[in-house]
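SAMPLE LOG
Freezer: B-3
Tube label: C17
Construct: single chain, 202 aa
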Amino acid sequence: MIGRLRGILLEKKPPQLLLDVQGVCYEIEAPMSTFYVLPEAGVDLVIHTHLIVREDAHLLYGFASLDERRLFRALIKVNGVGAKLALTILSGIESAEFAQCIQLGDMDRLVRLPGIGKKTAERLIVEMRDRLKDWETGSTPLAAPGHANISRSAEADAISALINLGYKPQEASRMVLAVAAEAMSSEAIIREALRTTLRNPA
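STRUCTURE (predicted):
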């Protein structure tokens, strides 16, 4: 099992980043919560990882914190929740807030996440309540928005990331256009789009 990697961040295109570890480049899938705190390309990076081995691929998932990885590992043990849906959950809601939803049985909040229907939300609450009973549910400070000038590229990257998280192309485009503004990076656009959607469900 590969548990942690340290290397140079070469590229970040949500939901994938490329890490150069002494000449070996690892493609790593990561939730948006990790992308929000990534440094600029070319900077040394330590990332916690989880390896999933399938018949057709070895898939590496990366997380900014041990708590994120712990929650990912708990999620993929839930019946019907795979790695992709687990990343979507981590991208759409902060770990502490998710734990609070589970502890309070807040289904309305959970079903606002893409890919989470009523049955999946019920299953998450039932199967994860005991696992998350000791989870800290205090508020987590928000990462500062990016400072790069907004561009069509930033908007396109944000739309692409939201589609990869399970949103339909038209919905992803609407979400991005509703929040995109000057001086926002693609990560900042995605974060605000997800926060706005969860605050104001359709």
